[in-house]
């Protein structure tokens, strides 16, 4: 499989503002923030999209959510709230084919589902 841009960031081939790293994932600031605070939680395992995750990824998926929560807390987003979004595939507008959680906050977000 060709390395995605996120795998290149994980391998330090491309620079990024890394907020968190552990054995299973990284959290980086989004290069084109859609809110005052916008970071991505990315598994080191290159899963193309949420729909391509398997039952064996159960623990990893939980870890990604827990990491989103922990990094949001460290970034001071917890008190006022934040949004976690996953775009899975073409209809959702996923542009990087490597699973990632968007975490958006730091301001009142527009209602996207109304
Ligand atoms: P998607 O549309 O696939 O759900 O989101 C991909 C996100 O990755 C976008 O918000 C985009 O701004 C971000 N992104 C794309 N390339 C880079 C990059 O090279 N560095 C960083 N930090 N973010 C990126």
UniProtKB/TrEMBL annotation:
<dbReference type="InterPro" id="IPR036265">
    <property type="entry name" value="HIT-like_sf"/>
</dbReference>
<dbReference type="Pfam" id="PF01230">
    <property type="entry name" value="HIT"/>
</dbReference>
<dbReference type="InterPro" id="IPR011146">
    <property type="entry name" value="HIT-like"/>
</dbReference>
<feature type="domain" description="HIT">
    <location>
        <begin position="5"/>
        <end position="114"/>
    </location>
</feature>
<dbReference type="InterPro" id="IPR001310">
    <property type="entry name" value="Histidine_triad_HIT"/>
</dbReference>
<feature type="short sequence motif" description="Histidine triad motif">
    <location>
        <begin position="98"/>
        <end position="102"/>
    </location>
</feature>
<protein>
    <submittedName>
        <fullName>Histidine triad nucleotide-binding protein</fullName>
    </submittedName>
</protein>
